[in-house]
Amino acid sequence: MGFYTFLCRDCGEFTEWQHSSSGQKNYSFCPKCEEESLRVFKPAQVFKMDGGLKKRFERGMEPRVVKKDEMPQKSARRKSMANRPWQVGH
């Protein structure tokens, strides 16, 4: 459940409370003129958040481009068959 903002072409922005069971609708009807209005996506209120978390929100959902040599190196790990004694002879 939450408040969602919609933009009516004639009346401007309005906020509406919607239940999560109604699904995420990208439209609603203006309470003044009853025209179909599209949802406006606004960023989260981050002015009181921790600095690191705030930066993550500001970067958005855009993935970072990482080169192969910048990727973390995984150490080669040997699989031990001692954990599965029934597979020792196979």
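(ticket continues) Second input and output from the same batch:
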Amino acid sequence: MNGSRHPKLWFPYLIATIGIVLSFLIWFLLAHNIGAYFEFLTAVRAIAPWLVLILGICFSILLAVIIRITQLAKQRTVTLDQINEHLKKEIGERINAEEVKQKLEVALLQGQKLQAMGTLAGGIAHDFNNILYAILGYTEMAREDVTKDSITYKNLGKVVEGAHRGQELVSRILAFSRRQHHQFDPLHLKSTIEAVLGLLKPTIPASVIIHFEPHTDAHVLGNQTQIHQVLVNIINNAVDAMDGEGTITIDLTHVPAGDPLLRGFPDVSSNRNYCKIEIIDTGHGMDQHTMDRIFEPFFTTKEVGKGTGLGLSIVHSIIKEHQGEITVSGQLGHGTTFMILLPEHMQG
């Protein structure tokens, strides 16, 4: 900016210097040999009215300049403060926008990966199912050729049992790979969660404490059997993660339209109200690598034979079918939190 637009920094010092010099001059004239300067004083007395007028005008102008300089300084300070606040706000908005963008990219990538894996799993499942039908058919035919009390009959029975377990696994893979159109009805979410807890209570160890904290009475449009499956799967996983001892907190809240939480999800409409279910456990938690893969089919942290790795992938598929979102967060050694968003259903 041009220096001419701002008052000179040396101007106040010049005014002060002139004032000091004049003060010393008047003091000297009055304190030293006034008679010698009588004629000078007489001449000055003759022009005193004009001198006072000029000094008054100069003093007024000087005072006005000082006041204006002060005003400009304050105005500049206020302007700079406003600019700083605007810059801080803009930087904060850009940081938030970048975080939301990263979350959207991660969610989109995960959705695309799950879709691709689901398509692949569905194709494999169909071929595997055909193989199982052949195994079952020929095994049953072989059992008919041997006596029921023979070892061969019993061994063939184990083959049949294994084939049936394979068929059950195939059916779960197919449930994940294709989104079936289920009957959706208005569900009172609070009552639905309470019903699930009532069913699970006899099977959960007494050392596991479950706190249910409902803060909304809203309804959602969904399939009750599928919602039951989602809750049962997550709660059972939480019990396993705590080794049968700890606390599970289920929090049900209302998320209004336009809430900043909704901006981080690509398939969620910010113009709708949502119900949020948080299931928080005090288990051993998960590292970031595990959380990144938790919804992938066939991914499991359980021992061989204790899990198929399809539970949470099916849960993810169900929530997506309900036009909702599910996320997981936590820290290794500090528990895990599953958050589910389901669109509210306004009953007519």
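Agent notes: Confidence is low (pLDDT under 50) at residues 1-7. The beta strands are 185-188, 208-214, 219-222, 246-255, 274-281, 325-330, 336-343. Closing as not reproducible unless the customer responds.
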